[in-house]
Amino acid sequence: MDGKEKLHIAMFPWLAYGHIMPFLEVSKFLARKGHRISYISTPKNISRLPKLPAHLSSNISFIEISLPQVHGLPPGVESTAEIPIQKIPYLKKAYASWKSL
């Protein structure tokens, strides 16, 4: 790569705000360099993100995908903030099941 090639990068953070927000910051950094970003998460998590500055909104696309329902995970849960720690394994299982979609 000659350093001028622009990339299309998929960002797929773990469903915890300690991951979601830093991934957004990395996305913004990369978008400022001219790269296209597809930021993939659940509808609730995307709706909670702060608005992008206008100059970055053309380089960052938000892709909403629904979290598959997994036995043991309460309905509507989309992040670690919504469940007690003992339910995290169910959220991990739902997150991992996206790979098979």
Class from secondary-structure proportions = alpha/beta
Radius of gyration: 15 Å
- As residue ranges, the low-confidence spans are none
Whole-number total of structural domains? 1
> What does the main sheet amount to?
3 strands, parallel
CATH superfamily grouping: Glycogen Phosphorylase B
The CATH architecture designation is: 3-Layer(aba) Sandwich
The number of helical runs is 4
Determine the mean pLDDT: 93
Query: Which bin fits the share of residues in helices?
Result: 25-40%
Determine the strand fraction and express it as a percent band: 5-15%
The CATH C-level name is Alpha Beta
The total of beta strands comes to 3
Output the helix-strand order: EHEHHEH
Order of strands across the main sheet = 1-2-3
Distance between the termini: 32 Å
How would you sum up the global shape? Answer: elongated
CATH fold label: Rossmann fold
Question: Overview of this structure, please?
Answer:
The protein is α/β, with parallel strands linked by helices and 101 residues long. The chain has one domain (8-100): Rossmann fold (3-Layer(aba) Sandwich). The protein contains four helices and three strands; from the N terminus they run βαβααβα. It has helices at residues 17-32, 43-47, 54-57, 88-97; strands spanning 8-11, 36-41, 60-64. The protein has a three-stranded parallel beta sheet. The longest helix has 16 residues, at 17-32. The radius of gyration is 15 Å and the shape is elongated. The termini are far apart. The model has no long low-confidence stretch (mean pLDDT 93).
